[in-house]
## 1
Amino acid sequence: MPCETKLEAIARDLRKTARYFREGWNNNALQAFIRDGGCCAYCGKLLLDTYGVSKTATVDHLLPRCTYPERGWNVDNLVPACATCNCIKLDYDPSDKGGRELEITPEVRLNLVHKAKAEIDRISKARVSEDDEYWEREFQIARPLFQEAVAKYLKFKECASAV
Ligand SMILES: [Zn+2]
């Protein structure tokens, strides 16, 4: 039995026995989660270990749906993703527009995941450092104003006690 057929059968059985997956999950997404052990493909976070985290589990279309609508919900093109990683990746195409004819074998999927992961890391680092620079600039403006405020209050207290 090929792996794909077995995966399908295992997912079907799981949906039969667990209402959580039967009622709340897309069948193909569930297959991708079983295949990848339920971890976010990009940051490795375990998504199906605790209930709270499981509520933010999403499935990512590795080759984005908007560019490759013909891939639909093919299991080959789906990977588990935490909401954070998925929101950063969005419609990024790790195949650089070469995904039309691509056959997504496990090796190809791994390469695409690595490429997307690098892009996610790059974007989140850039966001953090932009954020850092922004707050440092604002802090430099705020610091003398804070000192002024302290001085103003001290002066007020002095005057008040002199009365
Ligand atoms: Zn993640």
## 2
Amino acid sequence: MSIPIKSNRPNAVERLRKAIISQYPLLYLLSWEEDRVERMVSSIARSLNPPLQVYIWSISQGLTLGNEAIPDTGNALAVLEYIIKTPTPGFYLLKDFHREVEGNPVITRRLRDAYYALKDRGKFLCLVSPILSLPEELKKEIYLIEILLPGDDEIAPLVDYLTNRHFKTTITDEEAKRSLINGLKGLTFSEIQHVLNGIFYGKPAFSPDIIDQILLEKEQITKKDGLLEFIFPRYRTSDLGGYATLKNWLKKRSHLFTREAEVAGISLPKGLLMMGISGCGKSLAVKTISSLWNLPLFRLDMSNIFSGGYGAPENAFRRALAAVDALSPCLLWIDEIETGIVGVKEGAQGGSTTRIFATFLTWMQEKDSMVFVAATANRIDLLPAEFIRKGRFDQVFFLDLPTEEERKQIFTIHLQRKGCDIMKFDLVTLAKTSEAWNGAEIEQAIETASIEAYNEHVPLTMMHLIKTLSQTIPLSRTMTEQIKMIRTWALQRAINAS
Ligand SMILES: Nc1ncnc2c1ncn2[C@@H]1O[C@H](COP(=O)(O)OP(=O)(O)OP(=O)(O)O)[C@@H](O)[C@H]1O
Ligand SMILES: [Mg+2]
């Protein structure tokens, strides 16, 4: 089913209010946050003239008004009959009702009847659900509103309230407050409450270093579930060896997502596609953009999109894009993008993947939000040519196996990370011995050699490294044919990152 999603920008409450003023009697509120939706609906209900009561239904409680239970409304059909027949105006908020509708033609029919019975009677039926699941027949009657995560308008008062409660004052440093609010974007209302309460607890006052603690917590929270995972800005450009052309390209664009650039009328780059050989640092390169550009990075997990846990894949994908628009300015990282569009060629989940592909292209072409897409691809042969052409990426880079000079840099980075004195290592020999090795393999070799040295109770030396390097065969040696193919393919379509 494809209902156009009405994003809640700029404000979810406003959209909901508008739907009510426009007299849509059946609403589908798409959200993980039942509490927040309940509060939103209650606040709108109170503000109407005359104010409306809010009834809540769940399979466990039946229909309730405050503490009062309405008898004989325990099952889905009974509650629909009650709402259709009762003359009392009000909001009827039904939780998890999509489960009752699924595969049940009687409930579907009664919902359609409810549309006509409730219309213009001051009665509103709201289904609240974290996933979008509705039969085709209800498409015309139901007004869908996606309640995205809290934005500035909701986070700012909550921050004021909690800083006041903990520190008996609000934050006067406007810049710090702005960073704090931005840092909390991407979390639900109750997650924000938990994070702030936990971090403020026992501290004498607000200080800007609290923001880093918040970002670390956000990373943990969004890792657990959700389509968008926040990635803490841990890596700098100096952590990536080689790829000077790519780095230069990124550096030139590092001040574009700013107020000044906007005022100067600079048009924003839309995205970057990095393809290349496995283990060469594509993912690492994406992570470095976040600190270079000073923008939050969110990773979209394509395997979650297809897991079914978020509804039909194309709906899940559209929701993720709507959510990321609301988080802007930000970076969106789509790792191994070919998994999302592979069906174009191979037919696996073909329908969904083709639609996802189309949705992505349209979104890329039309988006006016400050979202920069950094996509990576391994199986580049699976990418349709039109994806690269029409994908509207500002640049397509190919990350090849590192050159000798680049391998020197990679050794330096990882040896220094191990606390080694780089002067004690012959980088030229190391780089020559590691011909055809990728960055990940070099890192792994240093790791293995360190374990050897540790077991011998001596510091890591050249000898340990040379021994490890000579005992391992890099992947590229066993895959010469594939790598040759990838190179030929890529160099016709992309520019070399080195
Ligand atoms: N150019 C490099 N400079 C420094 N470290 C590197 C480089 N390339 C790879 N590494 C190391 O190898 C690790 C793995 O690299 P990364 O995951 O970024 O590769 P990838 O290209 O995304 O691989 P895959 O295609 O398998 O996802 C990095 O975290 C980093 O430690
Ligand atoms: Mg990767």
